[in-house]
Amino acid sequence: MPDPREPDGTAGAIAPTGAGGAMDLAATEGSTLDKAPGGPEGSGPSTPARSLWSDAWRELRRNPVFVISGLIILFLVFISLWPSAIASGNPLSCDLANAQKSSAPGHPFGFDGQGCDVYTRTVYGARASVTVGVCATLGVAILGSVLGGLAGFFGGFWDAILSRITDVFFAIPVVLGGLVLLSVVTSNTVWPVIGFMVLLGWPQLSRIARGSVITAKQNDYVQAARALGASNSRMLLRHIAPNAVAPVIVVATIALGTYIALEATLSYLGVGLKPPTVSWGIDISAASQYIRNAPHMLLWPAGALAITVLAFIMLGDAVRDALDPKLR
Amino acid sequence: MRGATHAKWAACAVTVALAATACGGGGDSGGGGDGSGIVGSSWGDPQNPLEPANTNEVQGGKVLDMIFRGLMRYDPKTGEAKNMIAEKIDTKDSQNFTVKIKDGWKFSNGEKVTAKSFVDAWNYGAHLKNNQKNAYFFGYIEGYEDVHPEKGDAKADKLSGLKVVDDTSFTVKLTQKFSTWPKTLGYPAFAPLPKAFYDDHDAWLAKPVGNGPYTVDSYDKGSKMSLRKWDGYKGDDKAENGGVDLKVYTDNNTAYTDLMAGNLDLVDDVPASQLKNAKSDLGDRYINTPAGIIQTLAFPFYDSKWSKDGMEKVRQGLSMAINREQITETIFQKTRTPATDWTSPVLGEAGGYKSGLCGDPCKYDAAKAKKLVADGGGIPGGTLKITYNADTGSHKEWVDAVCNSINKALGNDKSCVASPIGTFADFRSKASQQKLDGAWRAGWQMDYPLIQNFLQPLYYTDASSNDGKWSDKKFDDLIDKANAETDTKKAVSTFQDAEKVLADQMAVIPLWYQNGSAGYSDKVSDVALNQFSVPVYNEIKVS
Amino acid sequence: MGRYVIRRLLQMIPVFFGATLLIFLMVNVMGDPIAGLCGDRKCDPATATQLKKEFGLDKPVWQQYATYMGNVFTGDFGTAFNGQKVTELMSTAFPLTIRLTLVAIVFEIVIGISLGVVTGLRRGRPVDTVVLLLTLVVIAIPTFVTGLLLQLLLGVEWGVIKPSVSSEAPVNELLIPGLVLASVSLAYVTRLTRTSIAENRRADYVRTAIAKGLPRRRVITRHLLRNSLIPVVTFIGTDIGALMGGAIVTERIFNIHGVGFQLYQGILRQSTQTVVGFVTVLVLVFLVANLIVDLLYAVLDPRIRYA
């Protein structure tokens, strides 16, 4: 038998928090933590000056991991908005005569299978890929953790309903879903793709969140808060969410990378981003075919994807650490 | 069974350890140069049940080519139709034919091949209730409308144009004059069938029985078929090996890797991504030979924007904006040849192939292209959409390259854009119902090596595969005239006249002729592909 | 507990019908599958009509569904377009896939959890960084490339494995495919374990256990790991579906004629019978897996009780 957990009467339990609604966003985007105000709402059992969320923010700013990952993400946002700032070429001007050639003057990363400049395409690909990755992850994290969290917290009937809906969604094969739902779309933007990923991605996160909430609500401090008459929303947001968020952050940050790759799968199926949209996913999938002849084609877009995922994993780690009072 | 396979596995493990020979590919049971070696070959799951008149793709075609012989057979090298079981096929008026078959042919179950074997098989293939996808092959035979009406149920059981005279001869009456009709008879759809086919259909499908140089030894649906040399085979193209093991691969890349690892002897479809390595991996064990397939870009003539006068200039301009040489070389590694007419080199000069018939409009010339497109009033809507299906055949690469080429020639990023459709079925149903706007990829694999087959089904007014609904009176008249021509030479030149109408109008843009490519191991020799890019299995020697 | 299980089993019924109906409709929406059966040419209209009749495609959708479900309950899952019985396809595909999935899950559990524990206990040390980098590689490089490179290297260059799995697919041939299939999930499992371990290692019960003088190994496995496993178990539970139904790339590279391939093929050919049949079985697998995961919660954390 494991030792029952000792009453964990530390900050996580007692310190009332401010805008706890930021919990879901905290899973993926550190910047939303800005909004967490410090003051309690007055209904908490005690009223210390600092809340968990503002503590976390203070902690974060001092964490070099957070600063570095933040800078990388800012840079990604920058080139997504102004790719021409660092790449002078045109990602769509391709000369088949240059196909698969490695680096040449003015073309540091070489050329891809169609003779397009790999550097330019990698820079221009950031916009679609980062948007798809970040937005799909945010959507999945919000929808998944809200539904999963509620199912886990309330249990019983609502858990049964929500979980069985999750099961039905699990049953849809990605290929089928993509071909059916995305083939009717004529829009040339990233939003249908993002919507599709959220629709098929939330069940997994919902299960993770549900599992975490089920565990977290057993903690003594939650039971204590319940005994003290705390409302459901208060217990969920202030006591359970901060303690259940870690697995959600972990899954979401890795999923971000897989969504960028999934976009390529959808494009491969002919239902993803439509040409002439440029994305890392499309380039990675095209380069995969030529791995024996021209590995440089894969290296750069895959490297960009890896750095993006690294930044978000580091960010997620930093946020999680900041939310864990035991580490202070 | 289970025990036996385990034992085989154990044996294999030992062999591998001792001699590092390959197992599982089955390539090396038997052995020596005595003609008893087994060829291990890649295969894909046939799309349809393995009935002769129901098989319209290469994978099923491979098996049929091994276990069946028909009246005629196309010479694997020249493509010329030669008598196989047919003793002679006579006609006086190009419409009524008398077929006399050779005596002594048998099916591998001992049954004799008679005139009735053919007539029954053709009646079966043509009849609506049997769902045979190649039923249209029998469309020229009188009475086809009754057994296979466009709408409603069949009005007759048998084709009225077929009559058995005696055991070794039967007569055929066609609905129209068709002088070269006997030359269509090399297609597997015209194969004879044994009684067992009708008596116990399921058993036959589980283990097909034919009259060819091989018999089916075992068939494990979806994974493997073992064919063995049939000693009782009557023809002179007997198998030079002991048999063929076809192994199903879901991806030709894996088959190629297995070939390199020595687990397989023959891959008849080298994956596009490996073409560049094939020469260095395989040396002269890589073959690349023309097949009767042409690829084109088709246009929607049902849309007045594309069919109005002057648009032929735009189409010609687009054709000139496509750098065929570069694309076939870079993307396809020369497994395609730039097209300069609307047929295929496998027909040969005598058969109607004419290099350069298209003339300048099929040559890359960016400046002229730009001018012609502008002269014709520009691309409708400003952007040419090229639709293709994403699921089969890796079309994305070349469509992207074609678009890049057009964009570059016309000096505008947005002149051409690729537009994928998820599934082949969806693509085909949109194409055949005239629901596509803009151009789309079109391909034609010949049914039989005749110039007629490259023109009539595709461009004749309302022809079965004329998806773009192109129509030209002059073209139709020339086709009719050519079909009625009894002199083959004159017929061919009349067909070519019709082809010139295509060139003037640029009804479709010919892109390239497709080759068949294959690689084989050093254990086998004499490997070749026929005009349908099916390996000529019976000629393969195993050392 | 018993009642909970029975209730959950009963809940499977509506999910089963909901999921099959949904999939049935989705395949149906894809349009006319017959057009794809005639190659690059148009099917002749008479044969097309006849084929539609044979596959029941000429009837209204609800009637097709009713007929189909009726047949399913008598054990008849219909016929694929190549004339093969769907039950026949399933009986060859599922054993292969189940074996492959089990191999992948074993990898996830053994490698993933071990790496997770090691990195969780040594946060910020070199081993943690190396594992993080491996994680990035696994996420950024497509499975197609890793699979292909392993196949070329181990199968062709070194001759350690056979590049393609034979149709019998013994477990030893499935090790490399299983590893390739598990690779992305490994990243999840490792990082989930790592985070949970890192979070719990400072928990008071761990300090108590250490203070009591329990051996380190026992503290880690009995106290720390057990309490850290819930997210990992949840993840693996959700991953079964992806491993079984979505192993398309891995199955193609190693020529495994499993569920992922059949399902993919069925979808592309728009064969309702194949797709719905396979998904139906997969749904049952998910439901059972989820039930097992929920029951494991109670095992891992005795405070969790099901009424």
Q: Order of SSEs of chain A, N→C?
A: HHHHHHHHHHHH
Q: Quickly count the helices of chain C.
A: 12
* C-alpha geometry of chain A: globular
What's the total count of β strands of chain A? 0
Low-confidence stretches of chain A: 1-48
Poorly predicted spans of chain C:
none
In short:
The complex is a heterotrimer of chains A (328), B (543) and C (307). Chain B is α+β, with helices and mostly antiparallel strands.
Can you offer a commentary on this structure?
The complex is a heterotrimer of chains A (328), B (543) and C (307). Chain A has 328 residues and is mainly alpha-helical. Helix content of chain A is 63%, strand content 0%. Chain A is built from 12 helices and no strands. Chain A has helices spanning 11-14, 23-26, 52-62, 64-81, 118-154, 156-170, 174-182, 191-216, 220-227, 232-268, 280-288, 296-323. The two termini of chain A are 29 Å apart. Chain B is 31% helix and 20% strand. Chain B contains 18 helices and 19 strands. Chain B has helices at residues 2-19, 58-67, 115-126, 144-147, 195-199, 201-206, 252-260, 275-282, 304-307, 311-320, 324-330, 348-351, 366-375, 396-410, 424-432, 451-459, 473-484, 488-505, and strands at 38-43, 72-74, 81-83, 86-91, 96-101, 162-166, 169-173, 214-220, 224-229, 243-248, 266-267, 286-298, 336-338, 384-389, 416-421, 439-445, 508-520, 524-525, 541-542. In chain B, strands 11, 12, 13, 14, 15, 16 and 17 form a 7-stranded mixed sheet that branches. Chain B has a 4-stranded mixed sheet with strand order 1-10-9-8, covered by helices on one side. The longest helix of chain B has 18 residues, at 2-19. Chain C has helices at residues 2-29, 45-54, 61-73, 86-121, 126-140, 143-157, 175-200, 204-211, 216-245, 248-253, 259-268, 272-300. The longest helix of chain C is centred in the middle third of the chain and has 36 residues, at 86-121. Chain C is globular and about 80 Å long.
